[in-house]
Write a structure and sequence with these properties.
The structure is a homodimer of 112-residue chains. Chain A has 112 residues and is an alpha+beta fold. Chain A has a single domain, classed as Orthogonal Bundle (Arc Repressor Mutant, subunit A). Chain A is 60% helix and 12% strand. The first copy, chain A, is built from six helices and three strands. In chain A, strands 1-3-2 form a three-stranded antiparallel β-sheet. In chain A, a hairpin with a 5-residue loop joins strand 2 and strand 3. The longest helix of chain A has 21 residues. Chain A is globular, with a radius of gyration of 17 Å. Chains A and B meet through helix 1, helix 2, helix 3 and helix 6 of A and helix 1, helix 2, helix 3 and helix 6 of B. Chain A binds a DNA duplex (20 and 20 nucleotides) through helix 4 and helix 5.
DNA sequence: CAGAATCCTGCGCGATACTG
DNA sequence: CAGTATCGCGCAGGATTCTG
């Protein structure tokens, strides 16, 4: 009944569904989160760049900034030469991984 | 180890994850599937148009065609005047709903 | 090494009009 | 009612260059 109302009242955009999509939609956001998860630990800027090939520097920077703003990843800077920056999942980001895993699992089933 | 290899070999794109995303990425694809699911039954063209506001006719037509090509929805035409066409979830499409539900649930938790 | 800055491009998507 | 056809554009994303 709740769901029915949502949809009847044309407010799909007020559901948690739309809320989540707003945070993770974009060409590389989910891939970025998933790459960090698969690595089982934080990744450096250039590692992400390589893993997300063919992403551009600009897209990567944007993606990381937006994910950080959404508190899904954290950015840790090591002030030294040469510079080193790591990106890892926050608790919030980790809580999203089961969802991404479900996406992966579903795909694996269909592939064979 | 499998996962590690995937990521080390820069083949995130060969995972089930990428496979799934290819089918459901696009501005309105997941929303379309979810709307049909929430309705607990097939929806007509104009109903979808309304529910997915502010989608355009062109985007809606494209979205429906691509989802149908991916066998996630079916199209049923009633040959009569006035025309009536229904779009519903296939078995494959239904199998994806738990994943979309997970996305919704996650969002609901964060909203409060 | 990790970006910022700049300029450029495609195309996903929208708006509108038309049709069986 | 359920779509196509046409035209046009914003903006996400790309390519390249520069810097602390």
């Amino acid at each position: 009944m709740e769901d029915i109302n949502y949809i009847k009242e044309n407010r799909l955009e007020d559901t948690g569904f739309a809320y989540t999509l707003k945070l993770i939609s974009g060409k590389y956001k989910m891939q970025t989160l998933y790459a960090i998860s698969l690595n089982q630990g934080p990744l450096r800027y250039n590692e992400l760049k390589r893993l997300l090939t063919p992403i551009s520097f600009k897209s990567l920077a944007n993606t990381l900034r937006e994910l950080e703003a959404a508190k899904l990843i954290y950015r840790k800077e090591y002030p030294k030469i040469p510079p080193k920056v790591e990106y890892g999942l926050t608790k919030l980001g980790e809580s999203l991984i089961p969802v991404l895993d479900a996406i992966c699992t579903w795909g694996e089933k269909q592939m064979k």
